[in-house]
Every structure is written in C-alpha cells, then in structure tokens.
Amino acid sequence: MDYILLLSKCRQVIGPSMLPTLNQAGDILAVNMVPKWWGQFNTGDVVLMRSPGNPTLHLAKRILGVEGEKVTYLVDPNNSKTIKTVLVPEGHVWVQGDNIHKSYDSRKFGPVPRGLIQGRIFYRVWPPEKIGPIDSKVNPNEPPTK
C-alpha cells in the first residue's frame, strides 16, 4: 500500500466543469502519477491533464473515449441539439467535463494526446465531508439522441 502513496500527488481543482462529481469551490484530490507507459487510462477515468491551449494550466476531465473508439457528443449543449461522432485517433483520448454546459474540453479542442495526461484522479482528500474515491463512469452526461 505504501507504494501507491509514493506514486501519488495531491492537487487542488477549482471550477464548474466537473460538477457534480467535483466541488466548484475546490476539492483536494489524490492523483495517481504512474508513468503513462506503465498505467492504462480507460473510458470513465477522471484525469488531471495539461490544457492543450495553455500547458501551464491543469484541467480535470473525464475520459469518454480512448484510441479507436467512437464518441458521440452534443456540439453545443447550450444552443443546439446537433450531435457529432468522432473516431479517437491513435495515441489520443476524448475528454469532457461532467458539467457539459460549463466545460472547456474536447468538444472545443478535439482529441487530446495521451502525453498531456498527468495522472488519474482516484480519491478526494478534502473537504472532510466528501472524503472518498472518485467514481469512474462511462458517460455521466445524458447520451445524445439521434
């Protein structure tokens, strides 16, 4: 069990994009920092990643598709019911915030290179009343209808 702590780091995540899974005011989360070549990321995992638009920023997002999978999503959930399907290219993942109405994610910047993923968020350590594991869900958003 001690080796897990050595490969983990705590990060604070603030913002509305992962509501209701994460608190908008800021949760402190344990991130599994296992090297990308050792760890496997799966659909449903919540990950800490560098922003494709600004690598100095870190984002928390949920993986909705890994390489070779098709992802169907609402193009603009605030203004349209238009859906689109993409095939996630090799070496990439498709990420979205659980709060699709307030998230800057793959719907804006496209598939994310796996190299931008820092680790898998697996446990909330603060606030005390919400301490516990972070659920992996396949798709927390309502599925688009065709």
TrEMBL record:
GO MF term (any one): serine-type endopeptidase activity
Highest taxon, organism lineage: Eukaryota
Record GO cellular component, one term: mitochondrial inner membrane peptidase complex
Signal peptide: none
Keywords: Hydrolase, Membrane, Mitochondrion, Mitochondrion inner membrane, Protease
InterPro entries: LexA/Signal_pep-like_sf, Mito_IMP1_subunit, Pept_S26A_signal_pept_1, Peptidase_S26
Active-site feature positions: 17, 61
Gene Ontology terms describing biological process: protein processing involved in protein targeting to mitochondrion; signal peptide processing
Domain Peptidase S26 span(s) in chain numbering: 7-73, 84-126
Record has Mitochondrion as a keyword: yes
Main location: mitochondrion
Subcellular localization(s) per the UniProt record: Mitochondrion inner membrane
Similarity remark: Belongs to the peptidase S26 family. IMP1 subfamily.
UniProt function note: Catalyzes the removal of transit peptides required for the targeting of proteins from the mitochondrial matrix, across the inner membrane, into the inter-membrane space.
Subunit structure: Heterodimer of 2 subunits, IMP1A/B and IMP12.
Protein known as: Mitochondrial inner membrane protease subunit 1 isoform X2
